[in-house]
Design brief:
CATH topology: Trefoil (Acidic Fibroblast Growth Factor, subunit A)
Order of helices and strands: EEEEEEEEEEEEE
CATH architecture: Trefoil
Radius of gyration: 14 Å
Distance between the termini: 24 Å
Strand content: 35-45%
Shape: globular
CATH class: Mainly Beta
Number of domains: 1
Helix content: under 10%
Structural class: mainly beta
Length: about 140
Amino acid sequence: MNSSLQHSTGIFSRAIGHVIMTTFVMMHKSSRSYIHPKGGQANPNNDTKLVVHSDLHNNMFFQFDIVESVWGYIRHVTSGKIVHPKGGELFPGNGTKLVLHSDRHSGALFALDHANNYIVHKGGEIRSPERRTTRS
């Protein structure tokens, strides 16, 4: 299943020539559930999977840190870790899971497509995080 991720409550403002983004949550568009670190921890370990879950809590907020042009890191607010395709590849294969990790490199760059409500990986398509039905 090829699902898109939707960002919500992202607000852009201009200040001194820089784009600053507030914190936001990411919504799995087809299920209308939210993207969380598996287990919901404030400071999850490196390679913690991102999962889709319906709960709302303080440890599910992200911020977009622009690095180059439209590309930047999606940073988990409470841990400072960023969203990566598992393994950190620039061109991950189909079905590659999304995880949180402390490393910052080109394989972890994303863009926010506000016109279509998509989050785009710099190297290409990534499938949705795994679906969670119970809280862990």
